[in-house]
Design a protein that fits this description.
This protein is an alpha+beta fold. Helices cover 22% and strands 41% of the residues. It has 3 helices and 8 strands; from the N terminus they run E-H-E-E-E-H-E-H-E-E-E. 28% of the residues are buried. The structure holds carboxymethyldethia coenzyme *A. The site of carboxymethyldethia coenzyme *A has 22 residues, from strand 3, strand 4, helix 2 and strand 5.
Length: 138
């Protein structure tokens, strides 16, 4: 079951350069930063009420986010939905014929298990499912 929009991913050239806008201009609180080597990105989470904004900066030229920025420029990259039992959700989506990028969960930021649906299967939107180990991502 989908619990909420966990976060919205925004691709940027440089987290350092855009942080003043998100923190000082928009007044969002920085919750943490980390590098997710597996995804080739540095990420920063900003709290926006019940949901978060995830700034994504590529740390590798081959990463999905680097390719996205090269083709489309900076902007909204993905929508992440918090779910329970991500393995079951992937199974159900596959049964509905939905093309998954990840057919098994992988490790994402904040210790979450994540899996992406292909944007072609979701009306041009890259959708991420995420589940915090031991429960829904908070
Ligand atoms: N949102 C919507 N559509 C997207 C997209 C995005 N973020 N990224 C790519 N696409 C579209 C492209 O426009 C293209 O469409 P057309 O064929 O109509 O031109 C199609 O998807 C294929 O894109 P591509 O550039 O040819 O292929 P890529 O090699 O870049 O792969 C994708 C695209 C989605 C499969 C790849 O980016 C991927 O596997 N993403 C999942 C992992 C990821 O995004 N990780 C970063 C976030 C990590 C985190 O949050 O921790």
């Amino acid at each position: 079951m989908v619990k909420k929009v966990d976060h919205i991913g925004v691709a940027v050239h440089s987290i350092e350069e855009v942080l003043p806008f998100y923190q000082e201009t928009l007044g969002l609180k920085l919750e943490g930063m980390e590098t997710v080597e597996e995804q080739g990105v540095k990420v920063a989470f900003l709290k926006a009420g019940e949901t978060k904004i995830e700034l994504l900066e590529p740390v590798s030229k081959e990463s999905a986010v680097a390719r996205f920025i090269e083709k489309r420029g900076e902007g909204i990259h993905h929508l992440a939905l918090a779910v329970d039992d991500i393995g079951m959700r992937i199974h159900e989506l596959k049964e509905h014929g939905i093309k998954m990028i990840d057919e098994t969960p992988r490790n994402g930021a904040g210790g979450a298990s994540i899996a992406f649906l292909h944007p072609k299967a979701a009306n041009g939107v890259l959708v991420e499912l995420c589940e915090k180990k031991g429960g829904t991502v908070s």
